[in-house]
Amino acid sequence: MASVFDEGQISYALEKIGDYIRESGSGANPEWSDTATKIIIDSLRAFAEKAEKLVVLQFAVAVALGRQGGLKGGPARAAMLTPKQRSESARKAVNARWAKSKKEES
């Protein structure tokens, strides 16, 4: 993945901010520190936008993989269980559903 930041610009910006803080060099001019600050803020905004898009993409991939696994997992689990275990599991599920509906009624 390509870097969002231009290292040359960031180094320049940090140097100018340092000059402004030390009140020495060409960065002592407040206009230079404003420019340096703008470079850093613009870079951080670009980074935030790319990071946000990356998070959305990661979420979509996770949802797709989870669904894929979910579609396979139920039948695979059922195939591993004995008929008695499947019956027991189904009974537990029915009882849980009925308990939930009784709670909602009261």
Q: What is this structure, in a nutshell?
A:
The protein has three helices and no strands. By secondary structure, it is an all-alpha fold.
Structure description:
- This protein is about 85% helix and about 0% strand.
- With about 110 residues, the chain is mainly α.
- The chain has one domain.
- The longest helix is centred in the middle third of the chain and has 51 residues, at about 30-80.
- The chain is elongated and about 80 Å long.
- The two termini are about 55 Å apart.
- About 5% of the residues are buried.
- The mean pLDDT is about 75.
How do the strands and helices of this protein lay out in sequence?
Layout: H1 7-22, H2 30-80, H3 83-105
Helix pairs in contact: 1-2
